[in-house]
Amino acid sequence: xxxxxxxxxxxxxxxxxxxxxxxxxxxxxxxxxxxxxxxxxxxxxxxxxxxxxxxxxxxxxxxxxxxxxxxxxxxxxxxxxxxxxxxxxxxxxxxxxxxxxxxxxxxxxxxxxxxxxxxxxxxxxxxxxxxxxxxxxxxxxxxxxxxxxxxxxxxxxxxxxxxxxxxxxxxxxxxxxxx
Length: 179
Description:
This protein has helices spanning 7-15, 36-43, 57-67, 84-98, 108-113, 152-168, 172-178; strands at 21-25, 72-78, 102-107, 123-127, 131-137, 143-149, 170-171. It is an alpha/beta fold.
């Protein structure tokens, strides 16, 4: 495996997007330390959006990118019925959507039937249809780094997965109505 990008190296990929960034998000849980307080509050019944899920550097960056015609989008593949983290992510997506990111949802069983890489999960970002950052996680679902790949076959595979996932997925509102 190549050297994994983290921190500023990975962040630079998002700041240098010229046309678009797409994430195929296929895990049912992410262990993100800065999410812990809002996740715990959500589990405790707190459902009002506050700054922890609607403002900050990510939202500022995606808002600016959307305004400049460089949209960020993603398809979240989820197991139905939803687990605690997926319910939290569905709720907190309101902040991402308000910042101009488009998020769609796809049931894991349907994704598997479409031959998307969901068992085991493959998470990735496709940048400008030119580079793929394959995300790696440890056994506790914590992000450890991203492997940057620009080989044409890999890029084409991720472009195909994006098309399949996007066409088969539902908007957040449609998905919520389907539950």
